[in-house]
Amino acid sequence: MSTYQQMIFVNLAVDDVAASRAFFTALGYPINEQFSNDDTASVVISDTIVVMLLAKKRYADFTTKDIADSVSTSEVLLCLSAESRDKVDELVGRALAAGGTEPREAQDHGQMYGRAFDDLDGHTFEVMWMDPAVVQG
């Protein structure tokens, strides 16, 4: 059996790499300096999830399409799981304290609880907890 775990690298265009780097560091996520520089910050969300914060000029190196204005246009919704309701509130609270905004009210469905935050560039991150008993069926 293979031990390979597929990873996801989420690339996001940002206006100010240093400010975005500080924002995600304030959320408790480490930066992989090996893959970071003035135009890029590699934010390690987990062993298999990395958010690459790219200055818009660097992001443009990877696409011929227009770069979405993430403040006024939703280009993607990113959802992160949390191990408890309290961890949902904790992460969103750190995001708000670091300058993020909360785009909508919390959603409480009993066995599922979620909140969301927009980062400094308007990218929406949803944070969601699901009751393990429900998930395991």
Put the structure in a nutshell.
This protein has 137 residues and is an alpha/beta fold. The protein has helices at 17-26, 56-59, 85-97, 132-135, and strands at residues 8-14, 40-44, 49-55, 77-81, 107-108, 112-118, 124-130.
How would you characterize the overall build of this protein?
The strands form two sheets. The chain has a four-stranded mixed β-sheet with strand order 4-7-6-5. Strands 1-3-2 form a three-stranded mixed β-sheet. With 137 residues, the protein is α/β, with parallel strands linked by helices. The chain contains four helices and seven strands.
Assembly context of the chains: single chain
On the 0-100 scale, what is the average pLDDT? 95
**Count of helix runs:** 4
Based on CA atoms alone, the radius of gyration comes out at 16 Å
What's the N-to-C terminus distance?
26 Å
Q: Sum up the overall morphology in one term.
A: globular
Give me some keywords for this one.
globular; three-stranded mixed β-sheet; single chain; 137 residues
